Amino acid sequence: MFKKLFSFIRKSVKTSGFKVTPEDLYLLGYKYYNGESFKENHSKAFKMWKQAAERGHAAAQGCLANLYSNGDGISQNHKKAFKWYKKSAEQGFAKSQYNLGQFYLARKEYTEAFKWYKKSAEQGVVEAQNNLASMYYNGDGVEQNYTEAFKWYKKVAEQGDANIQFELGQTYYNGGIVKQDYAEAEKWFQKAAEQGHIKSQLCLGIIYAGIKQDYAKAIKWFQKASEQGDNEAQEFLQVLKDQIKKGDKK
Questions:
Q1: What is the pLDDT of residues 78-130, one digit of tens each?
Q2: Contact, 207 vs 183, CB < 8 A?
Q3: Helical H runs in 35-145?
Q4: What is the distance of C-alpha 130 from the center of its chain?
Q5: 209 with 188: CB under 8 angstroms?
Q6: Which residues of the chain does CATH 1.25.40.10 include?
Q7: How many CB atoms lie within 10 A of CB 141?
Q8: Annotation: CATH topology of 160-250
Q9: What distance in Å separates the CA atoms of residue 179 and residue 45, rounded to the nearest whole number?
Q10: How many whole angstroms separate alpha carbon 114 and alpha carbon 138?
Q11: What pLDDT was estimated at residue 209?
């Protein structure tokens, strides 16, 4: 069914690009790009997306910009990539807003970068949320604000980024920007540790060995970190096992 549909669209495009909708052209480009229904062909994807982009399709504009930015199926051209990211971003396309922010950041135009990261972050793009948090933290393009930085880092952590989950755990463990809260620290270390984050496994082991005094769980997490080559975890594991042996002898 889909092959017949896209074959019809493809034939229509050959005779007149305006016989099909921009959405049709965008989808056809997507099929060519990913090798779905047709043989993968990035040059043809470029042609379809360019027609759709010129007719105002925001997602196609973003895809076209990606091709220009990466030199994928077409000669690399950062000027044209910027042009199409901007057109797409101005229509509210979240990924393009993030990519436009990347362009401004590379130019060290921090105020503009912040503006577009914020628009993208508010639509849930995790990379934009992370960069926005960093700009608040460092005071780049905006007045330094640790509270706002923490707020956005937390949103990143909630989307599953293990590194940021670890940083959030550290923040709660040490206090300062937020009130010290060992339960919250444990929660975020746990989330990251379950994804294999070594330092989170170590920190979780420390919490269980000390504050919680749950030695079975402490051994479990020290062991996991040790198996990934963390020397500090290996030392903690050995010390804890030795202490347990001494306690058993008493």
A1: 999 999 999 999 999 999 999 999 999 999 999 999 999 999 999 999 999 99
A2: no
A3: 42-54, 58-70, 78-90, 94-106, 110-121, 126-138
A4: 8
A5: no
A6: 1-91, 160-250
A7: 21
A8: 1.25.40
A9: 52
A10: 12
A11: 96
* φ/ψ bin of 35: left (φ > 0), alpha (ψ from -120 to 50), beta (otherwise): left
Residues in Cβ contact with 78 at an 8 Å cutoff, skipping those fewer than 6 apart: 68, 69, 103
The candidate with the shortest Cα–Cα distance to 149, out of 163, 169, 129, 165, is 129
First-to-last CA distance in the chain?
76
> Nearest-CA neighbor of 125 among 71, 62, 187, 188?
62
Reference 85, options 73, 72, 103; nearest CA is 103
Residue 139 Ramachandran class (φ > 0 left, ψ -120 to 50 alpha, else beta): left
pLDDT at 233: 96
Q: Using the structure block, give the residue that is written with the tokens 């709660």.
A: 172
Place of tokens 């019809």: 8
- In this prediction the pTM is 0.84
Joined together, the tokens standing for residue 34 give 């990913």
Find where tokens 């042996």 sit.
Answer: 245
Contact 219, 241 (CB under 8 A): yes
The tokens of 53 are what?
């982009």
For the chain, give the longest Cα–Cα distance.
Answer: 90
CB 219 within 8 A of CB 203: no
| Two tokens, residue 179 | 């009130």
Going from the C-alpha of 16 to that of each of 13, 21, 61, 182, the distances in angstroms are 5, 11, 20, 65
Alpha-carbon distance 34 to 164, whole Å? 31
Which CATH superfamily does the domain covering 1-91 fall into?
Answer: Tetratricopeptide repeat domain (1.25.40.10)
